[in-house]
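In line with agreed milestones, the collection of sequences with tokenised folds has grown. One record among many is set out beneath this paragraph:
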Amino acid sequence: MKLKGDKFYILSFLLYLFLGTNLVTAKDFPFKSSPINPAFEKFIKEIKEGKVPKRLTGKHPLGLIPNPIKLRPHKPEKELKALTLPNRYDLRDEGLLTPIKDQNPYRTCWAFATYGSLESDLLKLSQPAYDFSENNLVNKHGFDPGFNDGGNISMSSAYLARGDGPVLESCDQYPNPGGSPNCPRVKYIEDIVWLPGRANTNDNQYLKQAVYYHGAVYTSMYWDGDFYNKSTYTYYYNGTENANHAVVIVGWDDNKETQASNPGAWIVRNSWGEGFGEGGYFYVSYYDTAFAFNTNAYFIDKPDLNNGNFTIHQYDELGLENALGCGNTIYGANVFRANKFQKIEAVSFFAYEPADYEIRVYKNCNNPNNISGSPAITQTGSISEPGYYTIDLNTPVYVEKDSYFLVIVKFTTTSSDAYPLGIEEKINNYSSGATCNSGESFVSCDGVTWDDICGYYDLTNVCIKALATSTFTPTTDITPIIMLLLGE
């Protein structure tokens, strides 16, 4: 579907004003682009004007930067309400949390919230207690903001998805602004599930379910000390400010009294040391009007390919800053070159919407407009939430050294007003390091005619990766030869 009329020109103007893009005409751009997050627009505007955004100031160190695009609000589902969960649940009681940390004096809440969630989620999966390095994440996230300039879950996700972390705290200790040694990655985090913000202050069941089944959940809130009760460790904000602080949901208590009229509160892990609140934890009312209304997240870890010794073919080192749609269906494709004999064992992608997907891998192909023959594999599935997902291929695809291979992912959504395909984008003062070359990433509305994404606005690459292990196994089928030698 093409952008038409006022919608296109408004989008073009906003992109020019806030993102420093090169405008093209509606005729040149046959895809819908996801709406820009107004809070992010405001943040970039303040940066351009040389102001320190209010969200980065305050008595306590905060540091949340809005995501460039905001997920659609959660849609409450009746089936979730039918699940029976306890009136109170606390991951502290389950031994599924690592020790409290202290971000002071830097604006790095987002990194501590990321690993507060990840470390808990790994414990939930019966893995060891890890202490990951926030310092490495903050120093090496790859985006424009400096060590003390803040961040968000999108930046954390990009860092983890490209395979730069997590690394251990013992190798890179906090705080050390601007300096991080080369540390080995402990594991690869295959899935990062982005849960949408609450639809309203009563929309809590899906977040409870996530904590109960997956462990601690990354979230955000608006912090102002005037709304905190130090004697009861409770917090209730009922204003209209955007979130400015990242924290972690570790449980809930339906009967907890707060400053709100009705009982009920989230049990929240902070990153201000054990001296804050109840040993580093506090309670936020269900009726808080800024709590968990932006992207929430948890992590799923699966056994790494080849014990972690694998190659990530990718162009989208900075992950998802934008997303595209084209009616109910859109296709994304990346052309990669194998620098050795390899076995393609998984395909991963960022997606902005729940969708059905179809993965196709073509060997010896360097342009989706020139496909010949059948794909080496076709595999289908679905995702129920936005985020980053790694899909293990049912059958590995062997590729020759110095050969090109093409990975296509088709997304199909139930709505024609959707933007499932994740796109990396160059945004001044945020992701200005994003680059692209022609012949790398392509998009299509029909899977037949493809456009090279490099050059549209400041879009750079499609958020599709291929995970490969090295192999000396011949890429042709030698079964007949083996059978002949065995005399069968």
Summary: Confidence is low (pLDDT under 50) at residues 1-27, 478-483. The CA atoms of residues 71 and 227 lie 27 Å apart. Residues 109-124 form the longest helix (16 residues). Residues 1-29 form one domain.
